[in-house]
């Protein structure tokens, strides 16, 4: 199976309106920048986007929010995006806020083929509304369902033409699980190499999960919020 495509535009060419898409990364770290730009150019609309966060106003998923291409966000942390806040408060955007651990586990369970699991997180809050509750060891737990997507889009540090992926540090958060939870998985990589060039012990996502892969470019590596310590004054 030929997995290598020439560009982000080719990789996302068949994503339809109203698709459910997972997008990897953590904050602005390890997000699939090239594919997000391609989605913006494509003009597809009414997307449901599953991502830990919603980017910032002019970068990451914030771009797709600005162009009104996202109908619904399923996220954990969204506090750095003013446009997200505006659309939410004005009823222009559907939002499911999920505890971060629950979100990560729902994605992981989808990749493992486990349909549901129980967690104490969220019990007694609005998150519990309409969910089955069972008691384990004297403590109530909510039943949460696995979270699948039509397409999973991730960015890796290295990948080979067979689709094997290697991530770096924080970029592994969510991306490794998302790559296994989409019906079609698209990977953009900083370095595309030939089979045999990756150490098998360092591969985080086996190529069997990846359907399309391409060499990305022009990564910005932006920081969501930069905080520095003031120098001691004496």
Describe the structure.
Keywords: Transferase. Pfam families: CoA_trans. InterPro entries: 3-oxoacid_CoA-transf_A, CoA_trans_fam_I, NagB/RpiA_transferase-like. One of its GO terms (molecular function) is succinyl-CoA:3-oxo-acid CoA-transferase activity. This is Succinyl-CoA--3-ketoacid-CoA transferase. The chain is of the alpha/beta class and 234 residues long. It has one domain (8-114, 148-215): 3-Layer(aba) Sandwich (Glutaconate Coenzyme A-transferase). 19% of the residues lie in helices and 27% in strands. The protein is built from six helices and eleven strands. The chain has helices at residues 8-11, 33-42, 61-66, 82-89, 100-112, 175-178; strands spanning 20-23, 47-50, 70-75, 94-97, 116-119, 133-136, 139-145, 149-160, 165-166, 182-193, 212-215. The strands form two sheets. Strands 1, 2, 3, 4, 8, 9, 10 and 11 form an eight-stranded mixed β-sheet that branches. The longest helix is centred in the middle third of the chain and has 13 residues, at 100-112. The radius of gyration is 18 Å and the shape is globular. The protein starts with 7 loop residues before the first helix and ends in a 19-residue tail after the last strand. The model has no long low-confidence stretch (mean pLDDT 93).
């Amino acid at each position: 199976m030929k997995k290598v495509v020439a560009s982000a535009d080719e990789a996302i060419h068949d994503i339809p309106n109203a698709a459910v898409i997972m997008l990897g990364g953590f904050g602005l770290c390890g997000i699939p920048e090239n594919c997000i730009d391609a989605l913006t150019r494509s003009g597809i609309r009414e997307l449901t986007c599953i991502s830990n966060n919603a980017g910032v106003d002019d970068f990451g998923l914030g771009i797709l929010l600005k162009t009104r291409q996202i109908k619904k966000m399923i996220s954990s942390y969204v506090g750095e995006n003013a446009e997200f806040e505006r659309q939410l408060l004005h009823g222009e955007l559907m939002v499911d806020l999920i505890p971060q651990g629950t979100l990560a586990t729902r994605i992981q369970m989808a990749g493992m083929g486990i349909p549901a699991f129980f967690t104490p997180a969220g019990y007694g809050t609005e998150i519990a509304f309409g969910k089955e509750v069972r008691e384990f060891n004297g403590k109530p737990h909510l039943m949460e369902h696995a979270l699948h997507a039509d397409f999973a889009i991730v960015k890796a540090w290295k990948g080979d033409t067979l689709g094997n992926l290697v991530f770096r540090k924080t970029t592994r958060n969510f991306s490794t699980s998302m790559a296994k939870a989409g019906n079609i998985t698209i990977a953009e990589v900083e370095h595309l190499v030939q089979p045999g060039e990756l150490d098998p012990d360092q591969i985080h996502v086996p190529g069997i999960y990846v359907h399309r892969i391409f060499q990305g470019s022009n990564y910005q590596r932006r920081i969501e919020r930069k905080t520095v310590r003031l120098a001691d004054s004496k």
